[in-house]
Amino acid sequence: MVEATREQAEDYRRLVTRFGRRPAILRNAVWAFLVGGTICAVGQFFLGLFLLRGMPLKEATVPAASTMIAIGAILTGLGVYDKLGRRAGMGAALPITGFANAIVAPAMEFRREGLLLGVGARLFQIAGPVIVYALAAALLVAVVRILVAGPPGS
Amino acid sequence: MSPASFVIAFLVGGAICLLAQLTLDLARNLTAAHVMVLFVVLGAVASGLGLYEPLVEFSGAGAAIPLPAFGHALVQGMLKGAAQQGAGGLLSGGLTAAAMGLTVAIVIGLLMALVARPQG
């Protein structure tokens, strides 16, 4: 009898977590979509500004992204971005402003560990892995692309 | 600056973030940092396949602001460098393309760590 009860309790727990997770996943997805989309729409404003100055799209994305990085970094300094991130999840983390947040937040947090090993090192706590794997993956992709499609511009 | 460009940026950018959120929630052993790395690498691969640039042309900031654009920028910078200067350009072109963003992020990050206090 005790065995059965334990089994039932386990079943019940599993059922609750299964149905409990669904709304959470849906809610997280909606938040990520709305906040991520809004951040990109703000980015579109800056991209539009640089396009209006006559820059081609390929060039204009660079200062537009850099402007968004500056905004993300400053909002992190003001304590706003982390509040947004708790709700929006990847909607705040995946835009380039989230990359800025990933650099600024640990740098601020580990200030007390000193300027060198606190700020200087922790600045790259998340940005480091992103840069390392991005660079390695990009080089691999570029080399394969050149081997398969021939030298670029030819 | 057409209203449509904002709507398209919102929809495409939001969709990319939604995909990242689903990845995070459905693969339970991944952290946000894992998903960021994964999407940057996916951006590099999509760029190499010639898929990401058309998405940027279609959606502007919708594709240029989410992190896959970082991988895309590195690949395109490397290919551009290789076209202009061969092997040396291949190796230097990636970070050249990312230089402005990285410099802004690091310098403002340092500044914020010096002047701002973490809350909570």
What would you note in describing this structure?
- The complex is a heterodimer of chains A (154) and B (120).
- Chain A is extended.
- Chain A folds into 2 domains: 2-123, no CATH class; 126-154.
- Chain A has helices at residues 2-52, 57-77, 80-88, 90-93, 96-109, 115-122, 127-149.
- In chain A, helix 1 (2-52) packs across helix 2, helix 2 (57-77) packs parallel to helix 5 and helix 5 (96-109) runs antiparallel to helix 6 (115-122).
- With 154 residues, chain A is mainly alpha-helical.
- Chain A has 7 helices and no strands.
- Chain B is mainly α.
- Chain B has one domain (3-115).
- In chain B, 83% of the residues lie in helices and 0% in strands.
- Chain B is globular and about 45 Å long.
- The mean pLDDT of chain B is 95.
- The interface between A and B is large, with 82 and 77 residues.
Brief write-up:
Chain A is an all-alpha fold. Chain A is built from 7 helices and no strands. The relative contact order of chain A is 0.08.
Largest sheet of chain A: none
Number of strands of chain B: 0
Q: Report how far apart the termini of chain A are.
A: 77 Å
The ordered string of helix (H) and strand (E) elements of chain B is HHHHHH
Task: Tell me the count of domains of chain B.
Answer: 1
Mean pLDDT of chain B: 95
Q: How much of the polypeptide of chain A forms β-strand, as a percent range?
A: under 5%
Structural class per helix/strand content of chain A? mainly alpha
Number of helices of chain A: 7
Please give the largest β-sheet of chain B.
Answer: none
Q: Any idea what the shape of chain B is?
A: globular
- Give the integer mean of the pLDDT values of chain A: 91
Biggest interface reads: A-B, 82 and 77 residues
Rg of chain A is 22 Å
Shape verdict of chain A = extended
How far the N terminus sits from the C terminus of chain B, by CA atoms, comes to: 39 Å
Q: What count of domains describes the coordinates of chain A?
A: 2
